[in-house]
Amino acid sequence: MNWTAILLTLKLAALTSVILLVVSLPMAYWLTSSRRRWKFLVEAVVALPLVLPPTVLGFYVLIAIGPKSPIGQWYEAVVGHPLLFTFEGLLLASVLYSLPFAVQPFAAAFSAVDGPLIEASWTLGVSRLMTFFRVTIPLSMAGLVTGVVLSFAHTMGEFGVILMVGGNIEGVTRTVSIDLYDEVQAMNYAAAGQTALFLLVVSFLMLAVVYAVNRRFWSLWPMK
User: Fold this and answer.
1) What local confidence, expressed as pLDDT, does residue 224 receive?
2) pTM (2 decimals)?
3) Which of 22, 144, 170, 171 is deepest in the core (most CB within 10 A)?
4) CA-wise closest residue to 7 among 174, 159, 138, 135
5) Cα angle 95, 96, 99; round to 5
6) CA distance linking residue 201 with residue 195, whole number of Å
7) What DSSP assignment string belongs to 104-119?
């Protein structure tokens, strides 16, 4: 197996999950608590990567961060090299592609929190921000873990967006899924089988963690 590609993919998945945790928490809370009539438009934009072909999303990210785009020109002026075909570009694309896998579980978990508990915290003089961290977050932990794990697992298997934005540069943008494709193209089925088995095991373990965490939390707070 290509351990360089594996380590690169693990790094990409970990950073993507951390960024999505930070970005998705306020976004999911707003989607849950907001009474704006146009909120459904934001929900549709967030969920768009679920139905949009990865190559289409990759194409638009490619255009958005290319050397002729304002974002691409600004980044190159600040950092000194283009954003396209770099690890940073991959990270940006991965965050956009995996966004619904974090926001939707977070929002579902926030919606399931008992409203009177939050109101009771407010009546005791606790601020909304502290109530969020002391009441909402602990009661939503199963959903938060689910979102983080799904984001990690989804990033591990990305292909179309990664190939469009990052290309296939060894040690820089070649992830496990791209390495698997290369092995199949070279008819090296033994190496491809090992890589495919690795992804299968990782995916199974990630799903096992999600189901185990949810079962554990529901056993602590059973439905009546």
Assistant:
1) 45
2) 0.87
3) 144
4) 174
5) 80
6) 10
7) HHHHHHHHHS-HHHHH
